[in-house]
């Protein structure tokens, strides 16, 4: 894998972890729609992604830095990368900083995105990056994120799952989850409340599908 067109956008991992159907609508069917949340996020990132850098003697900030990893098959852009240099000018340390419009939350979508950026940077710069930071606009402060093995494993698993769905070209069934669906910009295109499964019905649906498969095998 060496063509940028074959690489998975880092943002796609965030979509996939949030909802597989949302991922498929965006990255397989090419459907996109803005709402208040996505519009605010877009404005924030456009402001940050105006590519420029700030430099002091042994410290440099890179805004809107393009990154990719051929090993992980990922491509994206970092809001900010803080670089610490040796006297020779060689990069000694690097820390990605992701900007988000909301508040700090327990869900891992933002952490996965940050970790994927770090994994790309590690490959590009040939250094280890043990942590990064997320700046939440509503909190007005940065949150330090440890980029441990569990998080890195999740990035790899999500990238593999994304490629699997893209190769199959299939859009998963809608599953209505109020917490997610009410904030999703694609809720009108997805129509989860009218065409999807209620989250409590998912286990029953899976059992029914397995039973049907077993019946077919017994014939």
What is the number of strand segments? 9
In total, the number of domains comes to 2
Number of helices: 9
What is the straight-line distance between the termini? 43 Å
**Uncertain runs:** 35-39
Radius of gyration: 20 Å
Just name the CATH architecture of the largest domain.
Alpha-Beta Complex
Output mean pLDDT. 82
Report the order of strands and helices: EHHHEEEEHEEHEHHHEH
- What's the shape? globular
**What's the CATH topology label of the largest domain?**
Lambda Exonuclease, Chain A
EC number: 3.1.12.1
GO molecular function: exonuclease activity; iron-sulfur cluster binding; metal ion binding
Family: Belongs to the CRISPR-associated exonuclease Cas4 family.
Cofactor: Mg(2+); Mn(2+); [4Fe-4S] cluster; iron-sulfur cluster
Summarize the topology.
Layout: E1 8-9, H1 10-18, H2 20-27, H3 36-48, E2 52-56, E3 59-69, E4 74-85, E5 91-100, H4 109-125, E6 131-136, E7 141-146, H5 149-168, E8 175-176, H6 178-181, H7 187-190, H8 192-195, E9 197-198, H9 202-218
Parallel strand pairs: 1-4, 5-6, 8-9
Antiparallel strand pairs: 2-3, 3-4, 4-5, 6-7
